[in-house]
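Input (Phosphatidylinositol N-acetylglucosaminyltransferase subunit C):
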Amino acid sequence: MMSRGQQPPWRKVLFLRQPYPDNYVPPSFLHLLRTNVGVHVPPFTSLVLLSLRVTLQFAIITCFTGVFSALFTGLVAQHHVLAICLILALLMLPPFVSLNFAEGPAQIRAAAKSFVLFVTTLLALSPILSTLTIDVSSDSIWSLSAVCLACNLLLNDYRVYRSVSLKFPASIATNMAVFASVLLASRLKTTESVFSLMTLSAEMFVLLPLLHRNYGTSPIVTIMFALSLLIASVVLWWFVSSSMVTGIVCVSASVTFLCPLWLQRLYRLKNTVHGPWDQAVIMKTEISRFR
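Output:
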């Protein structure tokens, strides 16, 4: 039997008989220990720009609920909301025309037909929607609407670039928002108020996210969208509830600035351990050599 000094050096070979136990750990085992390999702390500005997408969706929800509160309490008339819808439609018309014009005039005609069909259907359904939940208590309507809008905020598509491999649909969030809009519109007193609120809902929860999805890769566009809607929601809620204005400002500031700062601090606490015990990663260049 060989002594410890006469033993051959241990080799990391599987099918080789060596004078070492199976659970032998060489002294150089921890020499190749590496920590936080490939961990990159993202810059604060990039995190703020990404979090602005969440702030934008939050501003859309608060702006819509602000319009509903003003309609419900009688602070604004339905023709004022219709005027806002018309202004929004005129502002969004040129970008949508440029998008559809690239696909051909037939796409523009199809979009025009869909618009006319939507307006006609909504006019026909407005009397039904105004009495849809007449036998349901208001507390149940407020609670269910809040849950649906919260689901819209959680399930919304916040990707900067659309991935083909990711199949999670944004339509779930849109359906939640439309369902909440129907519930809230059913509490309004007049058919004109229901029509104006549902038109605003279609513009804010369907058309506006679609417009931002096509043009929102630019940070300037996202900043402009988020700032405009936040200012609008603060102005709307200023006449309804001052405490709600404080909540909107605090939540928006926390999501936009405090959460990215917190994430950066969490990155500094990250501690990943790497070494020779890690699973081997086969590179594409190595695969090509065996073809």
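The chain has one domain: 44-269.
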